[in-house]
Structures are given as structure tokens and as C-alpha cells.
Amino acid sequence: MAELTAVDELEEAPHAEVFEEHRPRTVRLRLDAGEEVPRHQHPGYDIVLYGIEGTIELRLDDESHAVNPGDAVQFSGEREISPKAVDDATALVVFAPTEE
Fold this sequence. Notes:
Blueprint: E1 15-17, E2 25-31, E3 45-53, E4 56-60, E5 63-67, E6 72-76, E7 81-85, E8 89-97
């Protein structure tokens, strides 16, 4: 059975679970301009971040990437991540378990 969610209608912030089933876990990330998520990791996952609205400065270890609407970034959850909103921004983040 398919599960359909209207991402724009999710209320929780800055993180809102998109689907009840967490396979793969999908989160809507909404940040106000200047808001930043502290550096952290997601060991055991490969991650895709897809820009929906606004610009996010995505820090991965010592790299920095501007993620704009329509951009998708894939990276290992072993890396240190810290997203910061340049302006009000929304993205979808998908956490796929790594294959061992």
C-alpha cells in the first residue's frame, strides 16, 4: 500500500516525520533564516537532502555546499553535517540504512 503525505501541511519544526513507516526514514527539515542545526552524524545511514525552498548552506566535515530548490545532495551519515538556512528554507532528508 502507498502512503501519501502533503509535505506543506506538516506542522512540526524544525524536523517533521513525513511517513509513519520509517523505511526509509524521511524528514521534512524547515529552518528559519540564520537557523543552524549543530554538527552531528548519522552513522549507519546514507543520506539524501533535497532542497524544496530557500537556500541551505550544508556543511559536511570541512566542505560547504549551497543547496537550492531542486538540488539534491547524497552523502554518508558518517560525515559531520551541519545545515544552516541562508534564508527561510525547507528540505526533505531521506535516511537509507547502509548495506553491510
